[in-house]
Design brief:
alpha+beta; 4 strands; DUF6888 domain-containing protein; globular; 28% helix; membrane; 1 helix; single chain; 58 residues; 4-stranded antiparallel beta sheet; transmembrane
Length: 58
């Protein structure tokens, strides 16, 4: 289950992605690290840590 901070960050990132007309393909929790992976568009991969901080993966 995602943390409250992760859910808030995920909501904000979803809003930004759809505002830029990027489709959201998958949102998934990695059980090993408890990070949320977020794939939007063709090449935008974001990782949301349990504290709500997010980073862009390349």
């Amino acid at each position: 289950m995602p943390t409250t901070e992760q859910m808030l960050s995920c909501f904000i990132l979803s809003y930004w992605a759809t505002k830029m007309y990027l489709p959201i393909y998958i949102i998934r929790i990695d059980e090993r690290t408890n990070n949320v992976s977020f794939l939007a568009g063709e090449e935008t991969m974001l990782t949301i840590k349990p504290d709500g901080e997010w980073s862009l993966e390349t």
